[in-house]
Amino acid sequence: MDDAVGKLVSMLREAGQLDNTYLFFSSNNGFFSGKHNVPPLGSSAARRVGQCR
User: Fold this and answer.
1) Coil vs helix vs strand at 35
2) Which residues lie below 8 Å from residue 14, measured CB to CB, with a gap of 6+?
3) Would you say the pTM of this structure is higher than 0.85?
4) pLDDT, mean over the chain
5) How confident is the model at residue 2 (pLDDT cuts 50, 70, 90)?
6) Is it the case that residue 33 has pLDDT exceeding 60?
7) Is residue 10 part of a domain?
8) Signed CA dihedral, 11, 13, 19, 22: sign only
């Protein structure tokens, strides 16, 4: 993702549109109940280890 964002920023800069652009980032994999890497027991995410880095 870092490479893709870098390319996007470069393209916007070259086009002179970087100062006129907002970039928003979102993810559906985040913290659960304010705890890092601790999904609720019994959830489908319980099988995933270290999903937030």
Assistant:
1) strand
2) none
3) no
4) 74
5) confident
6) no
7) yes
8) positive
3-state secondary structure of 10: helix
Cα gap 14→23, rounded to integer Å: 16
Three-state SS letters, 17-47: CHHHCCCCCCCCCCCECCECCCCCCCCHHHH
**Residue position matching structure tokens 């970087």:** 18
Contact present, 38 and 30 (Cβ < 8 Å): no
State which residues form the domain around 15: 2-47
Domain membership of residue 20 (yes or no) is yes
Residue 32 dihedral angles phi and psi, to the nearest 5°: -110, 125
d(C-alpha 18, C-alpha 50), whole Å: 34
Task: Give me the mean pLDDT over the 21-48 stretch.
Answer: 64
52 found inside a domain: no
Q: Using alpha carbons, list the distances in angstroms from residue 5 to 10, 24, 27.
A: 9, 11, 15
